[in-house]
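Before we proceed, please read the two lines closing this message. Report back on whether the structure tokens fit the sequence:
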Amino acid sequence: MTSSRTHPERTPEPVEEKPVEEWTTGAEPMTGPQRSYLRTLAREAGEDPPEDDMSKADASELIERLQRATGRIPAHRDR
């Protein structure tokens, strides 16, 4: 039996992102999904694909820069 009550929409709590320099796994090699996304973003931005030996932290920072360059996130958005 289904309830006829409605649930008000909940606003999710903002997620605070930890700075990449504080990541415990930041020095590990970038992940496969990061590599793939970076290749896509680099192609869209007209740049060469990044090095394959990049760290997770460096890949994350490059992803953010390329997202701004391609307009996927606004250039003025705060970190």
Observations:
- The radius of gyration is 18 Å.
- Residues 56-70 form the longest helix (15 residues).
- Residues 28-70 form one domain.
- The chain has a mean pLDDT of 79.
